[in-house]
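From the pipeline queue, job 12 of 40. The input is one protein chain; the requested action is below.

Action: predict structure.
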Amino acid sequence: MAIMADGRRQRLPPPRQEGESMYLPKHFEVSSVETLHDLMRACPLATVVTLSTDGLNANHIPFLLSREPAPFGTLRGHIARSNPMLSDLVQNVEALAVFQGPDSYITPSWYPSKEEHGKVVPTWNYVVVHAYGSFRVVDDAAWLRDLVAALTTQQEAPFSKRWSISDAPHEFIDQRLGAIVGIEMVITKLIGKWKVSQNQPVENQVGVVQGLRALGESGALEMACLIEKLYDK
């Protein structure tokens, strides 16, 4: 119990257990590596948090995910040589890559229970994966060329007319590769949080799905599909 500045008493949260890193009620936890990998591949642009002598830094980097080594796999990407993040990448110092999936504001007006008793509040649904590990820097032209080719193939897949690095002059690509360095993280911890209305009764889940579908936005429709899976089981 803590005493606030105005004299009020406030119960303190339980102490953080060793290894905990994100508030994660059990009903929101997803531990299937395959499911987490699916989201990381679908949403490959990660927010990478590293520790520097000046504090925390965040960069936004698209990654290529490999399954090996088990159980969590490896992330590979690249950054500009001029990026100050390079000085943060000290061997065996843990970093965090956050992959954000669909999210949506949830109005309580979508809950049938609002009309029954009114004891409802707004919330925000979201899907997220946290990948932990230490980065190593890879300064190798052949490695970088293979990585950039693979990343391009991954991201160009939806297009009917796909670009590849062979479409550009070889010397131009070499010049561009010279301005970047590779980074690689063997994932040592992988945490998934699917906050998709699991804590609501089925009738409220159905109401949320109907509301999201009425919005018609791509993110809202993706969230509606995730919630539907709960009561379709």
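Job complete. The domain at 24-107+117-199 is CATH 2.30.110.10 (Pnp Oxidase; Chain A).
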